[in-house]
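Worked example (supplementary).
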Amino acid sequence: MPRRCTVCAHPEREAINKALVAGEPYRSVANRYDSLSQAAVQRHEVNHIPATLAKAKEAEEVAHADGLLADVRSLQARTLAVLEAAELSHEHRTALAAIREARSNLELLAKLLGELDERPSVAVNVLVSAEWLQLRTVLVGALEPHPDARESVLRAIEGGGNGRA
Ligand SMILES: [Zn+2]
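After joint prediction of all chains, the assembly is encoded as:
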């Protein structure tokens, strides 16, 4: 069992974190709170502050992206309303302009959703497997004049490393 962190368990944890992030010395932070030792404060900063900061940053980024997403969605709703009105009154030029706007809103939405969808590993895998397919094509092509070698290389490829890490 890891030792319980007295700073993490402290009711004033957020104030302590703020002081530490602001660069206040361990000793001065520890002195302010009776129950905290300097060692505990130091341990907390080294072991727990980075994760806290990373989480806060992530939450901030997600909130920011969510805000943008909401903006683009409301923009799209208004664009579609304009499109509908233009169609009803047979204003074709306006309708076409609204369609163009709607399309670029959709592109923006797709981009934002792509950024929100935190699956960098999927993108990396796709990239890796695209590279792998390319390499495989080159290999098979290069071995064309050597059918036997090609046969065994292909067998090795299918049997073992299939590009998945
Ligand atoms: Zn802690």
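Two points are worth noting when inspecting this output. The radius of gyration is 29 Å. Residues 5, 7-8, 44, 48 surround zinc ion (CB under 6 Å).
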